[in-house]
Structures are given as structure tokens and as C-alpha cells.
Amino acid sequence: MKKGLENIQHLPCLETLTLRGIKMKSLNFIKDLSSLRHLNLLFGSYKDLDGIFNLTKLESLEISRTRQIPNYDFLNGLKNLKSLTLEGMSQLEKLPNLSELSRLSEIRIENNRKLIDISGLSGLKALNKIILTFPEKINASQKKALLDQVFEVILSSKTVLSTNVWFWANKELRDKMKKKGIEFYGWNPSLEKELKK
After folding, report:
1. Kind of pairing, strands 162-163 and 16-20?
2. Domain boundaries along the sequence of the chain
3. What Gene3D superfamilies does the record point to (predicted)?
4. pTM greater than 0.90
């Protein structure tokens, strides 16, 4: 246990926690933080995140550039999660099944260089916003495969309202998204002008 971190478990009213650059075997010391609503794990290393499973009031979770996570089963316990960010996860190849997250409305999947499967997005009943970005040096076929998957999710969804993947959509896909009322998320004046036509 990193010096001083064990004291966090004695803060039952804590609502927001950011751990930056922390390397630990587990986060079991936060499992009883019943009031925690926002958790950010940045630039760290953890071999066991099962302690997060019990944080049933958690509304937003960001995991960024964090190593050694063996699996993401802990996500299924987060019944009130509304926002999830997975960024720069160098070993993440497949998005976990997120269908248990009935309140998840926003997901950001950013710069995950080994990611090849995001089918776990299917079946999310409350998803409103999807943000997908790619690392600078991504294989063209890998990028296309991910885009094909995300377009399929978006066009089959009854709840998605906005996304940034307009950037990579051809005219046919843009017309389909426009017809569904899906808005462009981000900042690109030339694209926004085109979409208003």
C-alpha cells in the first residue's frame, strides 16, 4: 500500500477521486467508498480492479494510460455508470460486454492502439454519445474494422444522438446518420457547414 493512500478508505463521504501515477496490486481499499461518484485512474498500474465493482453509485469512470489490467469484469457492477472513458490502454484488444450498464449514456474510446473489437457497445439501452479516436500510427485495416463496427452500432441504435465519427463517414453513411438525427460532436467548421446543407 502506498504511504497514506490507505487513509482514503476512511472517507465514506468522498464523491470524487483521482489517482495519478499510482502503481499498486489492487484498489480494494476503495471498495467501501459508498458515496463515490467520479473516479479517474491516470498513468498508473493495477493488477486487480475488482474493488471498483462495489462502487454502485459511481457515475463516471476514466481509465487512462493504465497498465496491467487483466480484465474489465468489474465494470458490470457499476449499475449507475453514465460516462466511461478508456484512453491510451496499450493492451486493450476487445471492449468488454457493457450490456449490464443500463444507464451508460456516454463512452469515449480514445487512442487504444491494439483495439480491434468494439462489439461490446451493442445492446447499450441509454447510449447517447460515442467518441472514437485513433492513435497516430494505426494500421489502416484495423482503423477501417473499428469504424465499420462503430457505424453498425450507431445506425442500429435507437438512442445515439451524437458522435465524432462523422469525420470518417462516406456520403452514404452521413446521409443515414443525418436521417436518424445524429449530430456531429466536435469542432470542424468545414464539416459542420457541409452537414447543414
Report:
1. unpaired
2. 5-195
3. Ribonuclease Inhibitor
4. yes
DSSP 8-state code for residue 30 = G
Question: pLDDT tens digits for 113-163?
Answer: 999 999 999 989 999 999 999 999 999 999 999 999 999 999 999 999 999
For the stretch 153-189, pLDDT in tens is 999 999 999 999 998 999 999 999 999 999 999 765 5
Instruction: Give Cβ neighbours of residue 182 (< 8 Å, ≥ 6 apart).
Output: 154, 160, 161, 162, 163
Convert 31-62 to b/e letters by CB count within 10 Å (16 or more is b).
Answer: bebeebbebebbebebebbebbebbeebbbbb
Q: 46 pairs with which residues across the strands?
A: 24
Q: What fold, for 5-195?
A: 3.80.10
